[in-house]
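Q: Convert this sequence to structure tokens.
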Amino acid sequence: MLGAESTGTTTLARELADRYRCPLVPEYGRTFCEQKRLAHASTISWRSEDFVHIARQQQADEDAAARQAWPLLICDTDALATSIWHERYLGTASPEVAALAASRSYTLYLLTGDDIPFVQDGTRDGEHLRGWMTNRFRHALAVRSEPWIEVRGSRTARFATATARIDQLLTSPIGAR
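A:
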């Protein structure tokens, strides 16, 4: 799962994990950000090393969950998303985070569109960047070899689109994925 702030990524990830009764790997970056915010008041000074740590921990969490999950694992973000968040906060790409992202492949990416209202939860600061980030995610996915779809519309429409594609993957022969 990928998406800009307040595009329903976490909500959809939870709904899909519930629907398929499979493990959900939560977004470690959010946990890291909340911990960093608590330790440093409301201002966070981001460093490239933070994003490397986030990407590595996200992958470690994925690996731990994958050892228990079959045939489906839902991940609420990945190192590719972390690389784009690096660009968003530091203004440049991170070769190390990009290499971590390139080291993985997934059966399907779901990108949550930015066509729903922004909801402030007290930590979000990127409403003005949602369009840029969504386009950046589209571009990053377009150059990868894995299939991806963008889910848009209401919560119900997004869920229906996602489950239709996942069901198709789960019932198709391995070579057809």
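The longest strand covers residues 109-112.
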